[in-house]
Design brief:
The chain is α+β, with helices and mostly antiparallel strands. The protein has 5 helices and 7 strands. The strands form 2 sheets. The chain has a 5-stranded mixed beta sheet. Strands 2-3 form a two-stranded antiparallel ribbon. The structure holds magnesium ion. The site of magnesium ion has 5 residues, from strand 1 and helix 1.
Length: about 160
């Protein structure tokens, strides 16, 4: 068994599309990023890489590489999942928190779990996603950023 933790935060700006867990969610602002800025999938990817003691997604997909400009983070996580498979690991369980004032996660929770489940080839019953606000405090609380945390447990196939 290997445990990994992932964290990500992206600045928010008007005119960007909010993508969380691979799902487009209606929102006034969206994340600024070289990719689609999906904090949740980035945190999940880093948790998996961390569990295998590999370098993080920032090293794997550098934001200086034009190949990753505007790329869907679903594709990035798919690559991480491929690496995990090659190393002989499967996801035992994954627990995630999205921190932001908006959007509310609950209505999209099951759709997000389904997307992550499909990419990681793990049952939806072992994937948990929940939302928290930052009680209007700090950059996240003031709606200037969205953040995510993920903890994953991998087991050898
Ligand atoms: Mg990121």
């Amino acid at each position: 068994m290997r445990i990994g933790i992932g964290y990500d935060i992206h600045r928010l700006a008007a005119g960007r599309t909010m993508v969380l867990g691979g799902v487009k969610v209606p929102c006034q602002k969206g994340p600024v990023g070289h990719s689609d800025g999906d904090v949740l999938l980035h945190a999940v990817g880093d948790a998996i890489l961390g569990a295998m003691a590999k370098e993080d997604i920032g090293v794997m997909f550098p934001d200086t590489d034009p190949a990753f400009k505007g790329v869907s983070s679903r594709d990035l996580l798919r690559e991480v999942a491929g690496l995990m498979e090659n190393e002989g690991y499967v996801v035992n369980n994954l627990d995630c928190v999205v921190v932001g004032e908006e959007p509310k996660i609950a209505p999209y929770r099951d759709e997000i779990r389904k997307v992550i489940s499909g990419i990681l080839k793990a049952g939806e019953d072992v994937i948990s996603v929940k939302g928290k606000t930052s009680e209007k405090m700090g950059p996240v609380g003031e709606g200037e950023a969205v953040a995510a945390y993920a903890v994953v447990l991998l087991e050898q196939k």
